Fold:
Amino acid sequence: LEIRGAGNILGKEQHGNIIAVGYEMYMKLLRKEIEKLKGEEKPEIITMIDLKYDAFIPDSYISDNSTKMEVYKKILSVNNEKEIEEQKIEFIDRFGQIPDEVISLFEISRLKILANSAGIESIIEKGDYIEICFSKYSKANVLKLIDLIKNNKEIIFNPYDKNKLFVKSFESNISIKVKRLINFIKEFTES
Structure:
């Protein structure tokens, strides 16, 4: 680009595409395509989380539905701890003290960030258990995981379904549940 210039990448022909998807998304797609062409593509795991919880933005905090949608989108789009803290500061500044229900949404985002980086495909609460499904790119330390399974009767491993782990469901309070899941994932992913 430095030798030939940006040319068609940022030229008139691409202008409509940038407007349609937004500059940040366009640049993200462009980076991904360049990585793919160079053979440096990294798998992107986006963890699906389905837990029983009441985490929402109460009308007493934000009454306007379009503003609520904007806030939900911002909470779901955070990628790291720094962005979570920045969003919290912005929300306190714009809307006042953050209620527990919204704090729970941030905790779920925190869990999703960790699970994504650990290569976990899904965390789904099914009845009395939480099913954790690992991707083929999982960063789980197998020895630590085996040790956890051996020493904890609330963790079930099915040898016929090797990429899944079942953890006895705990706590109905979503914040506590999510914090325990975060600690559990850290136990088998940190070195």
Summary: The radius of gyration is 20 Å. Strands lie at 48-50, 120-126, 129-134, 155-157, 164-168. Confidence is low (pLDDT under 50) at residues 1-15. The longest strand covers residues 120-126.
